[in-house]
Design brief:
- The structure is a single chain.
- Helix 3 links the parallel strand 1 and strand 2.
- It contains 13 helices and 11 strands.
- The protein is 47% helix and 17% strand.
- Belongs to the UPF0065 (bug) family.
- This is Tripartite tricarboxylate transporter substrate binding protein.
- InterPro entries: BUG, Bug_dom1, TAT_signal.
Length: 340
């Protein structure tokens, strides 16, 4: 700033000091005006419908969360929140829509950690999640449950011992190549020194069906699905991801408790918008979303899905996304997991 002032004085000449000071004052005034304009824009936001992009098909937990959030948020704003499903390529198609939208806060993205994982698995990702998107806030956390069929041993140490004695004979199902479940299992099997056969599926229902039928030995499932079948003895939960036990399965230990590292980071569900959106708007959305997510009925609906409401503001959530990008990026590169 001092160097710029000296150049201005030299260019105008010593006799124009008053003019220079006036010009500098105008610059400061413009900066103040812009700040005031940002605040004003935030106070008027939203003045039209807001689009909430879900990069996954209808019916899943992410979609249910989006609709549970959108309705009360629309009432609070007195403007519709329109949920739009744009599935494909591990969530990248929907995320790309938001990354390329106008930076005005009217296009939001409900994302999972795949947002910062999938770009490492393709040769030419269409966007950079941390450069082209802005974090608004975390909404919930979730966990996965490694589950065995009824013919398998009943504890994780026993399963690991069996897998070590029979390399690639024990199979496990996940939601597909490159999904969070696949990445968690890659970290687990390597850390456990147990070679297992990965069987990718296109959803949770077929995993549960084949697991109960004995076509696969292990599967990664949601706490809600596991609780339903564990009650009848058809499935045996072994361990959950994350740093706390799943409320639906309080007797099932975490991988961390059992001594397996690298699986303690809970999966998050959070909101993003287009990079360049004025920060006052980002902060307003974050605060309003936090208010909505605090409601008892939403917290109960999420609990029924096996999700834990755990909100955070933009800076904190941005730090989580950045840390996850670094961690999972290294995992993906180490194991050369590709989608193309």
């Amino acid at each position: 700033m001092q160097a710029d002032r000296r150049k201005a004085l030299q260019w105008l000449g010593a006799g124009s000091l008053a003019t220079t000071a006036s010009a500098l004052g105008l610059g400061l005034g413009l900066g103040h005006a812009r700040a005031q304009s940002g605040q004003s824009t935030a106070s008027n936001y939203p003045s039209r419908p807001v689009r909430l992009v879900v990069p996954y098909p209808p019916g899943g937990a992410t979609d249910v969360l989006a609709r549970a959030l959108g309705e009360p948020l629309g009432k609070l704003w007195q403007r519709p929140v329109i949920v739009e499903n744009r599935p494909g390529v591990g969530g990248m198609i929907g995320a790309d829509v938001v990354a390329k939208a106008a930076p005005d806060g009217y296009t939001l993205l409900l994302a999972l950690p795949s947002l910062v994982q999938t770009p490492y698995m393709v040769a030419k990702p269409p966007f950079d999640p941390l450069r082209d998107l802005t974090a608004i806030g975390q909404l919930c956390t979730s966990s996965l449950v490694l589950t065995a069929n009824s013919a398998m041993p009943r504890t994780l140490p026993e399963v690991v011992s069996l897998a070590r004695s029979q390399p690639n004979k024990i199979s496990y199902g996940t939601y597909g190549i490159g999904t969070g479940a696949h990445l968690y299992m890659q970290v687990f099997t390597t850390g456990a020194g147990a070679e297992m056969l990965h069987v990718p599926y296109k959803g949770e229902a077929p995993i549960a069906t084949d697991l109960i039928g004995g076509q696969i030995s292990l599967g990664t499932l949601s706490p809600m699905t596991v609780r339903q079948h564990a009650r009848t003895g058809k499935l045996q939960p072994l361990a959950v991801t994350g740093n706390t036990r799943a409320p639906m399965l309080p007797d099932v230990p975490t991988f961390q408790e059992l001594g397996y590292k690298g699986l303690d980071g809970p999966a998050w569900l959070g909101l993003f918008t287009t990079a360049g959106t004025p920060q006052p708007i980002v902060e307003k959305i974050s605060a309003d979303v936090e208010t909505v997510m605090a409601a008892a009925d939403i917290r109960q609906r999420m609990a029924d899905l096996g999700l834990i409401v755990k909100t955070s503001r933009p800076a904190a959530f941005a730090a989580v996304a950045k840390a996850d990008q670094a961690y999972w990026g290294n995992v993906i590169k180490e194991y050369n997991i590709r989608l193309d």
